[in-house]
Amino acid sequence: MIKTAGEIEALLALLDDTDVSVSIPVTERLTALGEPAVRVLEQQWEQTDNQLLQTRIENIILRIQHNTIKKDLKDWTDCRSDQLIYGAYLIARTQYPDLRFSEIDTVIEKLRAEIWLEMNNRLTAMEKVGVINHFLFNVHGYNRSVRGVQSPQLYLVNHVLDTHKGLPVTLAIIYAELAERLNLPIYCVNLPHNFLLCYKDISYRDDPDGIMFYINPYSRGSIIGRGEVEQFLKEQKSDVKPEYMRPVSNNETIIRLTEGLRFAYAASMMEEKAVFLEELIVLLKKNGPDHIL
Q1: pTM of the prediction?
Q2: Are 194 and 232 in contact (CB under 8 A)?
Q3: pLDDT digits (tens, 9 = 90+) for 71-90
């Protein structure tokens, strides 16, 4: 805890010491002070021409940001994992540490309100999905990106909401979040080599898992059946396992998102970011629930 603003200033005065027995404890203390120290560190960075001091400040700020994301992500797995979009927001902060959740929530809520006005209880499940598809893909122009899985930006939900271009997992997260806010039983399906959604109704008896149909967000929300999903798996030379066809927890969805982003960072030669994403994956797998919806 920071007792006085002067504590940070006193520590900063020692941060450029070439004696590591001084600089290392100072670095550890400033890192431990956390977010309250960031603004003062940024101001000091702007005011100095000392490159050693600037580099050490940059490293401390990065460590503080990483620690904050880890803490927030653990809190999400413990208490807020029912909020899928919030998990995606936390992963986006690996690239945009100053991103505010309200920026994402406002866009999602505006979309929800437009769709809700066209919904009513007389619509069938497919008709309700058709309403979402119309607004998301026709009115607002959300679509697949041609840039491919090696582009880190396509895994960042704020970027997808800004550009309306995404990958299967990010488009599915936005779609599933809208469905959740509209009280529709649409869930993510973590398919190998793809990422789908399903419409699940426990009263539906024609499917062992109560899944009425699947939705492909990467194909403008096209509706497909279990047989088509099984055929896709066979074409990809994947085993047709029952668990592949079922909805997954929000935690598993965010793991898939984070794994994709880690791959993109590594492919883009951003090794430090890839290493940090691996740490987040370990955290998610250790702390998050793995139950099936």
Answers
A1: 0.90
A2: yes
A3: 999 999 998 888 999 999 99
